[in-house]
Structure formats: C-alpha cells, structure tokens
Write a structure and sequence with these properties.
Strand content: under 5%
Shape: flat
Structural class: mainly alpha
Helix content: over 70%
Distance between the termini: 32 Å
C-alpha cells in the first residue's frame, strides 16, 4: 500500500506545498511586524530613559521583541527551504525542514510543560490563568504541527523513493535484461 494521499483527496506534496506557502506568508508578515514593533519599542525605551519616564513596555520589551523577531525570521528561512524543496522535489531540503520541525516541536512541548509546572499554582492575582491558557494553546498548536510534520515526512519519503534509479518494484526488469 503506497502512502500517496493525505486527507484522502490531495497528495502529500500538495499538502506540504500548501503548508509551506501558508507558513511562509504568515512568518513573513510576523517578521515584518516584529521588526516594526521592535524598532518602536527600542525607540520608546530609549526616549523614556532620556526623559526619565516609565514605559508601557517595561525594561525587557526590546530584548523580548528582538528575540521573537529573530525566531520569526529563522522560521521564515526554514519554511522557505521547505517551499523550495517541495517545489523542486528535493528530499534533502524537505528533510532539513523536518529536522527543524522536530526541534521546534520538542522546544514547544518542553516550554508548555515548564509553564504547567512552574506557573500552575493559584495565587489569586489572575496571572496563572494566562499561563494555563498558554499551556493549553501550545499543546494544541504542537498537535497540529505534529500532523503537518507527519505529512512532511511522507513527502520527503516519497521524494527519496522517486529519486532512486530503480525502485524495488521495477527491479525485475533489470534482472531480465541481465539474462538476455
């Protein structure tokens, strides 16, 4: 039984290509917004230091925005690699994204578990609700992302199988040619 279909009506490479395009557009927008918000938060932070005012963003906002923008840019680059790999039918590029996706999935689940362990206590200030919702959302997003990774794995396995000169199912013609 071949693993050609995903979601019973479209091929795995079509699903991977749609995922890559959607993710690429999403993280391109996130990167551009992140750069804009980072520049604005740095400007507000510098002007508040110069004028001795308190800021809305807090002292760690510029660092946090730089970190989030960097992560969005890295994700955009890896998603572009996936898009190129699916478009050119290169298993190596798709496999690179698959490895990146496994690392992201492990980090996301680890941070969700750490949120659950450290911030699940009810202290009465309402802050724990944010971390509970964040943990549940990260677990849900991780489940959806793991389904996409299954589809991406099937895509690169299919590309690897197609890239071999003789598939095992056609090997009988090679043996017949040798005898004649």
């Amino acid at each position: 039984m071949t693993n050609k279909m995903c979601c019973s009506s479209c091929s795995v490479e079509t699903g991977s290509l749609v995922f890559a395009i959607f993710s690429c557009v999403l993280f391109c927008i996130a990167s551009l917004l992140g750069i804009g918000i980072t520049l604005y938060s740095v400007y507000v932070h510098i002007s508040s230091v110069v004028h001795s005012r308190t800021t809305f963003f807090g002292p760690f906002a510029p660092f946090t925005m730089i970190l989030l923008t960097t992560l969005a840019i890295i994700t955009f680059v890896f998603t572009s690699i996936l898009w190129w790999g699916v478009h050119k039918r290169k298993a190596e590029y798709v496999k690179i994204y698959f490895g990146y996706g496994i690392v992201v999935l492990v980090l996301c689940l680890a941070s969700s578990v750490s949120f659950s362990m450290f911030f699940w206590q009810d202290e009465g200030d309402g802050g724990e609700t944010f971390f509970r919702i964040s943990s549940v959302v990260m677990i849900f997003v991780s489940l959806l992302f793991s389904l996409a990774l299954v589809m991406i794995r099937a895509t690169y396995k299919k590309f690897e199988q197609q890239s071999t000169p003789y598939n095992n199912q056609y090997r009988h013609t090679e043996l017949l040619d040798e005898k004649c």
